[in-house]
């Protein structure tokens, strides 16, 4: 609990029960939409709305506590992991899995550098690969 409070404080945000609950839900879920977080915290925080959760998630993303994903259904998802990595998205379960593959990331960066896209320098790879887990 203290680590969560310190993480929130270090980002320059006020520690509130709502922010703690949202971050704890994200730790449990890993990748989640605001609706999923609301469902996760509903038992202990029944008055926490989707709008409030979305605002908390956005402030966490803005301050480097979470990262943002765009889901295939145009729904916004957030990721508790902020380091560079790829994602596998299972269309059957509608869940994300982290996929760390430095070789793939280097191949993509090198490819883009070789293309010499005017005025563009790749700094981060954010790749979502869709499929089904068998």
The gist of it:
With 134 residues, this protein is α+β, with helices and mostly antiparallel strands.
Structure explained in plain terms:
- This protein is α+β, with helices and mostly antiparallel strands and 134 residues long.
- The chain folds into two domains: 2-79, Winged helix-like DNA-binding domain superfamily/Winged helix DNA-binding domain (Arc Repressor Mutant, subunit A); 86-131, Dna Ligase, domain 1 (2-Layer Sandwich).
- It is built from five helices and six strands, in the order H-H-E-H-H-E-E-E-E-H-E.
- The strands form two sheets. It has a three-stranded antiparallel beta sheet with strand order 1-3-2. A three-stranded mixed beta sheet has the order 5-4-6, with no helix packed on it.
- The longest helix has 14 residues, at 102-115.
- The chain is globular.
- The chain starts with a helix and ends with a strand.
- The mean pLDDT is 90.
